[in-house]
Amino acid sequence: MRKISIIIVLAFFLTECSTVPITGRKRLNFVKDSQVLPASFAQYKGFLEKNKLSEDKKMTAQIKDVGAKVSAAVDRFMRANNMQTEADSYKWEFNLVEDKTINAWCLPGGKVVFYTGIMPICANEDGVAAVMGHEVAHAFAKHGQERMSSGQLQQLGGIAVALGTSGKSEDAQKIWNTAYGLGSGVGMLAFSRTHETEADKLGLVFMIMAGYNGEEAAEVWVRMSEKAKGKKAPPQILSTHPSNETRIETLRAYLPEAKKLAKLYNEQSNHTGK
């Protein structure tokens, strides 16, 4: 029975593994867009109905304008790289919500929200583009779908552990189940950090493709770090996000490569006329 469980897990992994464009990372995704996007769009609509949109017309216009330019860069990339069906599935929307929380997020399918609290950290239009690129990149790389797939696989792994230890003593079963729970929990945190780093890199490429200054991406995290001074952060291994310092280093190191890729992809989309 234990061998059968392992075979099932491996079968899921091998048959549902695809590649994230640009970064080349292998991802596990067996949740189809048709299962996710209707719920995502409904959730976004419900959120907007329950939360107050910003009345600052200038900031709101900036969010919508930057969002349109960055998402257009993503769309050009997809259509120039035989991803027309995926490009058509995105329903990009950008809104600024009145909330002091320093945050922004993007649901699958391209539904983006910025909170007014993050605007001082963005500081300027290039800063907005950096955050926008990061959030749009989550949707582009299908991180939401991948997290759902991983959650289901984690449940399947728990079943496999239970089946594999069914013949052992009750104490042994508890030890194995606890070990799996702790191990898979830390593993999921590392998985989330991988997504954040990938979104940082992809977002940097997309913001540069859209005509913005990529150097500002790291500066956003410099300002975020300054804002967080005096606040004790959890060890990176127990966090869903890389540390601010790690993100600054990653963005600065990746900037030359991002510039090359942005230039290449813009030339590619111009050449194909897409």
How many structurally independent domains?
Answer: 1
- Strand line-up across the major sheet: 3-5-4
Helix content: 55-70%
User: Strand-and-helix sequence, N→C?
Assistant: HEEHHHEEEHHHHHH
Q: Which geometry do the CA atoms define?
A: globular
Spans of at least 5 consecutive residues with low confidence: 1-15, 156-167, 171-191, 234-239
What is the averaged pLDDT score? Answer: 80
| Rg calc | 20 Å
Number of helical regions:
10
Strand content: 5-15%
Structural class: mainly alpha
CA(first)-CA(last) distance:
52 Å
Keywords: Hydrolase, Metal-binding, Metalloprotease, Protease, Zinc
Protein name: M48 family metallopeptidase
Cofactor: Zn(2+)
Domain Peptidase M48: 69-253
